[in-house]
Amino acid sequence: TDVPIVRTDSGLVAGTRIEVGDNTVDAFLGIPYAEPPVGELRFRRPVPVSPWNGTYNATSKPKACWQLDLRFVANATMSYSNASEDCLYLNVWKPVSSCSEANSCAKKSPVIIFIHGGAFQWGDSALFLYDPANFVALSDVVFVTFNYRLSLLGFLSLETAEMPGNVGLWDQNLVLKWVRKNIESFGGDPKEVTLSGQSAGGISAGLHAISPHSQGLFKRVVMQSGTPFSLILGMAHKGAGKFINAAGTLGCYDARKNLKEQLNDVLVCLRKLDAKSMFKILQSADVVQQFFAPVIGDDFFPYNLFSKEAWNMLRFKDIILGTNRDEGTLFVDNLRSQIPTLGTLLATDYRLAVTVVLAPMFDISISQSRRIVNAYFGGDDVLHNSKTVEGIFSKIFGDAAFNCPTKLFADIAASQGINTYRYLFTHRPSFSLWPKWLGVAHTDEIVFTHGSLAFINDESRYTE
C-alpha cells in the first residue's frame, strides 16, 4: 500500500513514494490537465481533460512541449528530439504525512505553483533544476510544476478572433484552475497558493496577477528574474507580419493573395503540419523569425502593458521579487553566437555595434539607443577594452530586461500597500552551469530557491 492514490475531478491518480533524506514525499508526475492540443485543437485555448476510468498512472515525468534547440553555452546545445505536442501535464509533490484518500486532511499545507522560464520559447518542468522533492521534504508544502505550450505552438498570433495567441498563457491559467479544484485532495490549501516563476515564468506570474481570468486563484507571488515589464523585449515581435512570415516559412501562405481571403486555408494548413517538421523548418529560419512572444491587449490581458490603469489592480497579498547580479551576461554571450558579425563590429566600433543591436531588440529609435549607449559608455573620448565593452553591454541588457522591470514592479506593488520583498542574488555557486566570466548569471539562483541539488543542504558551502 505504499502507492499513493489521490482522487481528482477527472479520476484517480497513482503516484510514487520517494525517500528524501529522512523524509518521505509522494510524487505524482505527468497528470494530464488538458486534452492533447493536437489537430483541430492546435493554436486553440486548452480544453480541460476528459475524465478517465480506473487509475491513471502518474509515475513518469511528462515529455517536453515542442521547442527549438537551445544553445546553452559555447558549443553545448539542448535538443528536445523526443518532445511531444501532447505535453499538457502537471506534477505534484506532497509530504506523505498529510493525509490519505479515506480521511480528508484536517491541516492543509500551503501550495506553490512554479512556472518555468525559457523566454516563452524553451523549457521543461522535468529539468533537474526544478525538482522540488527536497524542498517539499524540508518544508511541508504541496508543490506543483507543469508544462505549457511554447514558441510557435504556444504564441503564434494574428491578434484576431481566429488566432488570438497566448494559448501558452491559457495553459497556465488552466493549471491554476486545476489546482483550485483539486489540490485539497493532495493535502493542499487552495486558499494559500503562491504563484512563483523564474524569467518568462516570472513575467507570466505577473500577467496572471492582473488578468481578469486568473483573479483570485492565488494569494502570493514570487518573481525570480522577470516581471511583465521584461516583455519590452518581445514588443517588436508581433502581429500579422510575424504571422505571415511564419506561415510563409512553413509553406502555408500564398504571397500572391492577401491574408484575408486565404486565412482559413492558411490555418487548415498550419494545423495539418507535423509538429516535428515545423520546428525543423523553423530551426533554419532567421533568428528573429524564430521568436514568438505573448501579446498584450487581448482577452487574457486586456490592457496596455505600460498604462497606469493596468497596474492599479494588483490582486495579491505579498510578493518576493529579485534579480541576479549579472543578468545580462548570458544573453550577450548568446547574441554573439547568433550574430556572427557582432564580434567584429564590437572590436571595430563598439558604440555603433551596441547602438544598432539595442534599437530593434527593444523596439526603440536609433537616437534613443544612442542616448542609452552614451549614458553607459561615457562620452566619445572614454575608451574601453573588449572586456569592459562586454561587461557594459551586459549591464545595459540586464538593466533593460530584468533590473529596471523588477524595480518598477516592486515600486508599483509597494505603492499599493502590498508586502513587497526585494532581493539581489550575488553569490556565484561553485556548481554554476555557466563559465566564470558570466559572473552571477541568469538562473544561478534556482538550485537555491528550489533546493534541487541535495548537497546544497550543507549550509557550510553557502559562504564564500
From TrEMBL:
Catalytic activity, reaction form: acetylcholine + H2O = choline + acetate + H(+)
GO cellular component: extracellular space; plasma membrane
Superkingdom, taxonomy of origin: Eukaryota
Keyword tags: Disulfide bond, Glycoprotein, Hydrolase, Neurotransmitter degradation, Serine esterase
GO biological process: acetylcholine catabolic process; choline metabolic process
Residues covered by the Carboxylesterase type B domain: 3-455
UniProt-annotated catalytic positions: 199, 327, 442
UniProt cross-references to PROSITE patterns, sorted A to Z: CARBOXYLESTERASE_B_1, CARBOXYLESTERASE_B_2
Record Gene3D superfamilies: alpha/beta hydrolase
Presence of the UniProt keyword Disulfide bond in the record: yes
E.C. number(s) listed in UniProt: 3.1.1.-
A molecular-function term among this protein's GO annotations: acetylcholinesterase activity
Family of this protein: Belongs to the type-B carboxylesterase/lipase family.
Protein name: Carboxylic ester hydrolase
